[in-house]
Amino acid sequence: MKKQLIGIMMMVSLLLVISACSNGQEVQQPPTEESENEVEMGVAAAQKDGNADAAAEGTGVFMVTAFMDCCPPSVVEDAIAEVEGAGKTDIHVDGSTAEVTVTFDETKTSLDAIKTAVADIGLPVE
Question: Which residue positions does the secretion signal occupy (predicted)?
Fold first, then answer.
């Protein structure tokens, strides 16, 4: 009887996790070479013009391991958006691993702070 009750509780928990993580959003595609070149050209132009705000933009890439297929990338995007200075986020999911590319204002935050925000929602990062 206890095994059946535990089994039912596990099923209910799993269903709650799945329903909490699914909202029907599409997975974003990884950045292309063209978009990466545009970012590099924009930073170079800002440095040339002396625009310190745009020149302080950094880009970081990290991996989220054990990424659950049931959870949309918006969960990670929302966590990153809470970090002051975080900018555009692109997420490429491949099975249970997600590659996260994020731009951020280096005068306000760091890649480590962004990774910590994702780890704080329970997802392991590398």
Answer: 1-24
Q: Domain spans of the chain?
A: 25-119
Into which CATH architecture does domain 25-119 fall? 2-Layer Sandwich (3.30)
Question: What pLDDT was estimated at residue 13?
Answer: 56
- Tens of pLDDT, residues 112-125: 999 999 999 988 89
Predicted confidence (pLDDT) at residue 49 exceeds the cutoff of 90: no
Query: Which H or E element spans position 74?
Result: helix 74-81
- Predicted TM-score (pTM) of the model is 0.57
State how far the Cα of 11 lies from the Cα of 62, in Å rounded to an integer.
32
